[in-house]
Amino acid sequence: MSAIEPDVETQATKIAWRCTCYNTRKTARAVTEFYDRVLEPSGVTATQFTLLGAISILGPGPISRLAENMALDRTTLTRNLKLLQKTGWIGMRPGADRRERVVSLTPDGQAAVERATPMWRDAQSRIESTLGTDRWHRLQDDLTTLADAVSVE
Questions:
Q1: Is residue 97 helix, strand or coil?
Q2: CA distances (Å), 35 to each of 44, 79, 128, in order?
Q3: pLDDT at residue 130, rounded to an integer
């Protein structure tokens, strides 16, 4: 038997199920697991692919720029980048400022992106076909709007 009164428990449950943070995190975990399964044959995880793809698109640059573009705090990003560096997929070197680190893809990192990209396209296509193109585009727009609405300046 729950120590919480039935009316309070019902209210708490309603709040939890309607919580934007809870629902976006739950969805993010499910989507990440889906991409991990699809990307598994490439040897690249969804998180790694996202980081490698961003580095590929942005080109060599400071970690701070990558963190800003990915909406990640530098500590979390640096921890993930060190793992990619251990695999040999990225290189890091000092920037113009001694405190700055510049990150870039290595040839092995570019090969990992190229190996995983067809699988990523398959995952994207499967999600879009499940949702339908219009709904998928609305979802992308809504997620961007939500991220913009809650971002701290």
A1: coil
A2: 10, 21, 13
A3: 96
